[in-house]
Amino acid sequence: MWRQLVYEFQNLNPYIVIILCLSVIGLVILIEKIFSLAVTQRMNYRRFMVDLKTMLRANDWERAQRYCDEHKKNILAVMGSKSLESFLDKPSEAQHTIEEETAAIIPMVEARLSLLPAIATTILLTGVLATIHGLWDIVYTAQETGGTGGISLLELGLSRCLAPTALALGSCIFLYIGNFLCVSTAERIVGSIQQLGLLLNNYLIPENAATQGTPVIGPEVSDQIAVKESHEEEII
């Protein structure tokens, strides 16, 4: 099979060239998604959520923001940092920032994932089309030659028309497996993004925090309380 594939490529079989070009494009997209999802976004999301929730529950906003800044390479940490920064600057705008960041980050995670199945399907259909074309050539050649050549002619024709399909199937399987891994990773990240959005909404938005039994104390109020406590200590 490999010898036949090399022979067809050297003779610039258009189907083989198209399949190889599409395979290279799919491989580039797959490598880019694996790097962007599995490498740059690698983090213990459960530990991050637990630590951040502890800081938010204690109304320790600045510490929570510093904690997010320490993981600034991760999109979840960036989302948390921007939301906390908006809350510290203007608490009333925190909910808008959370919603905007969630709406902006999720499409970034899911970008180009739909291209891999489309490219894999196109590759497979191209291989099938090459096989059908090859079978037509066999029938036409047999009619023109009157069947002379016998089995050797049939073997040569079948090997030529089946080689593109074999290459297409191999490329398609590889791209589909890679797409499955990328989609599963993206779904896990999107779920963590939605969980972080709910966490920030529950602890930064006053009306939501009231249902959690944790009053939200803004930065101005926190400063006033700290000054009052220090004044009371001086009096004592």
Please explain how this structure is put together.
The chain is an all-alpha fold. 85% of the residues lie in helices and 0% in strands. It contains ten helices and no strands. The longest helix is centred in the C-terminal third of the chain and has 55 residues, at 150-204. The termini are far apart.
Defining key terms:
236 residues, 85% helix, disordered C terminus, mainly alpha
Which secondary structure elements does this structure contain, and how are they paired or packed?
Blueprint: H1 2-10, H2 14-39, H3 45-57, H4 61-70, H5 75-89, H6 94-110, H7 115-145, H8 150-204, H9 206-212, H10 219-235
Produce a short descriptive summary.
The protein has 236 residues and is mostly helical.
Termini separation comes to: 91 Å
Multimer state: single chain
Q: Can you count the beta strands?
A: 0
**From N to C, what is the helix and strand string?**
HHHHHHHHHH
Mean pLDDT: 77
What's the number of helices? 10
Low-confidence stretches: 209-218, 220-229, 231-236
Strand-pairing-aware structural class: mainly alpha
| Residue share in β-strands | under 5%
Radius of gyration computed on alpha carbons: 30 Å
DSSP helix fraction: over 70%
Largest sheet: none
- The rough form would be described as rod-shaped
